[in-house]
Write a structure and sequence with these properties.
Length: 342
């Protein structure tokens, strides 16, 4: 399925129905009482977070959503019916922006949460409302107010606890396949992963956390090289990052350079992302060459104060332990008081 994580749409609320000018026509009172009813209110547009939706694909085809108008008032004091609000389901985790000003309007994190970007116009008053001591037979009624219209931008941010970062081919998707039921594509060429995906990791009988697999980063990603950094926004809500380093066919210095490259791209995207707690993971430990270089690699990282963790997604070695470590870090982060996680 195509993954669309951004969309720009026009939302238009319904106009209010016009008020009515009418008089009761009775046999001996040609202009009986004024009896024009009010118009009904127009429908508002309501965005509602739906946990079953995974993409903004619908909005590729439907760029404008329009709510119904309110009905007009009519004679005998009948008010026009108010229009129903138009409920528009969006994926859970959608952030709503005003497309013109760029202002963030809402963040629909919780399933079922709602935001009203545009309100329906109020129905106009019928002439029955304009009777006064001096005007007994008003011929005046209000038109319905127009409904609001606005252009908004929707952006999905995946709701994951832990994000995987690393160069292409570092073994991110392989790890996700190993530790969760998700089956992202794995291949020995760079940029196998083209869109972000989530995997649910079970760490105990009733404990799970969500891991996000995103496309690999390379030097210059923040300038759009490779797949760029446009997917990094999906990590903005994660609490912890796992930084995967592949040492196959590489010297220790090259591994350190790779590690610095990825961190530099994180900083260029968002300082906040760069300061998230990171676990550094040396992958592909089933390969002899990787095992041989490991002691030196470990020492080089230790010199920088970084503790390395070993895994092999091929054999599963170290994967369970790594998930336990991530889970413990997540528990700690969640426990930390007054920290606004976003
Ligand atoms: N031997 C061995 N090979 C691995 C291991 N993990 C990944 N690989 C191989 O490394 C290559 C890249 O793996 P992926 O999981 O697709 O890497 P990725 O980081 O998701 O790559 P991109 O999506 O391109 O960023 C594939 O050929 C995998 O089979 C491992 O633990 N052992
Ligand atoms: Mg991948």
């Amino acid at each position: 399925m195509k993954f669309i994580d951004e969309a720009q749409i026009t939302v238009a609320a319904g106009d209010g129905g016009d008020g009515c000018v009418a008089f009761l026509r009775e046999k001996f009172r040609p202009l009986g009482g004024p009896a024009g009813g009010d118009g009904g209110d127009g429908g508002s547009v309501v965005l509602r977070a739906d946990e079953r939706l995974g993409s903004l694909l619908d909005f590729e085809y439907k760029r404008k959503v329009v709510a119904e108008k309110g009905a007009q008032g009519s004679g005998k004091n009948r008010h026009g019916a108010a229009a129903q609000d138009l409920i528009v389901p969006v994926p859970q985790g959608t952030v709503v922006y005003d497309a013109e000003t760029g202002e963030q309007l809402a963040d629909l994190k919780e399933a079922g949460s709602e935001y009203v970007p545009v309100y329906g116009g109020r129905g106009g008053r019928g002439n029955a409302r304009f009777v006064s001591s001096t005007v007994q037979a008003p011929r005046r009624a209000d038109p319905g107010e127009p409904g609001e219209t606005r252009v908004i931008r929707l952006e999905i941010r995946l709701l994951a606890d832990c994000g995987l970062v690393g160069l292409p081919n570092a073994g991110k998707s392989s790890l996700v396949s190993r530790v969760s039921a998700a089956r992202p594509k794995v291949a020995d060429y760079p940029f196998t992963t083209l869109v972000p995906a989530l995997g649910v990791v079970r760490v105990g009988i009733d404990r799970t956390f969500v891991l996000a697999d995103i496309p690999g980063l390379i030097e210059g990603a923040h300038e759009g090289v490779g797949l760029g950094i446009r997917f990094l926004k999906h990590l903005s809500r994660t609490s912890v990052l796992a930084h995967l380093v592949d040492s196959s066919l590489k010297s220790v210095d090259e591994c350190l350079a790779d590690y610095d490259t990825v961190n530099a791209e994180l900083v260029s995207f968002d300082e906040g992302l760069a300061t998230k707690p990171q676990v550094v993971v040396a992958t592909k430990q089933d390969l002899t060459e990787v095992r041989e270089v490991y002691p030196k690699l470990e020492a080089a990282f230790a010199q920088r104060g970084v503790v390395l963790h070993k895994v092999s997604s091929a054999t599963g070695e170290g994967c369970g332990a790594l998930m336990q470590i991530l889970d413990r870090m997540l528990t700690e982060v969640h426990r930390a008081p007054d920290e606004e996680r976003d």
